[in-house]
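Example record for the data management plan.
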Amino acid sequence: MPSTSTAEFVRTSIEASKALSLSAVIAAMSLAACNGPVENAIDCHRVCKRYSTCFDADYDVSACEDRCRTSANSDASFQGNVDSCEACISDESCATATFTCGADCVSVVP
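Corresponding structural encoding:
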């Protein structure tokens, strides 16, 4: 039978290991949570600004970005739509993007 000090050492080591693992999980989740909104802001800005550049110079880009970010931060499916739209339009002219990216972007911008 292990001595009291050995048993306590093992128990303390196990508790410390659990605490360290929990801390690592919390840190990873925090980083992931911080990364999403930043990426969404960048993607939403690009999509909304591109819509303004290609279709409507008077389009309210700021309001579009706000709607887009709010939806992307709360809905993973919408975030996927934003990512697809942004990836599609990034290297295309306005005319080409209209025809090739319409399906990817229709739920993000009008």
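Summary line stored alongside the record: Confidence is low (pLDDT under 50) at residues 19-35.
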